[in-house]
Amino acid sequence: MSFIKKHIIKFLFGILHSEAYKKYKQQQNNSWAKTNFKVFGKQSALPETFWIKNPQYISIGDNFSSLFNLRLEAWDNFYGKSFQPEIHIGNNVNFNSDVHIGAIDKINIGNNVLMASRIYISDHNHGNISAEDLGIVPAERPLSSKGPVIIEDNVWIGEGVCILPGVTIGENSIIGANSVVNKSFPKNSVIAGIPAKLIKTLEK
């Protein structure tokens, strides 16, 4: 019996890791996206593994691609408080793995943006540093936004970057690995650090 089970498991493993199954799974994901997203552009593709909350508030342009574990969250309600979230991703945007984007207000990612892995972008805070919020268990503290996150065209975001609420990153900028970005920077900026600081300004 164990011999038969071993070969059944091997057979199923082969199917799940075959190119034909991956292609089928990709088609299923893209069909779901076209039906559920506000906009899902031409030649765009979701990864094999993803977690999407409220896709009706999310727009994705043409030629989007992402590696595994994509997480997009548009929160329209949290413990009785309502929001009007919007996530917009432009054309020719490429994510590596484990990109997490969460919105209760607005996050706008421009065209030709490239992101490495393990990136977190949020337009809101989960609770505030106040006596009132400290009296609430962390998981139930209210969400609040300091403003939208805007990432303009042609931005390159390095590994492990965290971008916080109310931040605008100007076009053609580069963000160094593991940076925490808590303020805005103009176009052509090279920034890095915790918190991120201007390293140099690029010149064409």
TrEMBL record:
Gene3D superfamilies tied to this protein: Hexapeptide repeat proteins
Family matches, as CDD domains: LbH_MAT_like
Top-level taxon: Bacteria
InterPro entries given in the database record: Hexapep, Hexapeptide_acetyltransf, Trimer_LpxA-like_sf
Protein name: Acetyltransferase-like isoleucine patch superfamily enzyme
Species the sequence originates in: Chryseobacterium lathyri
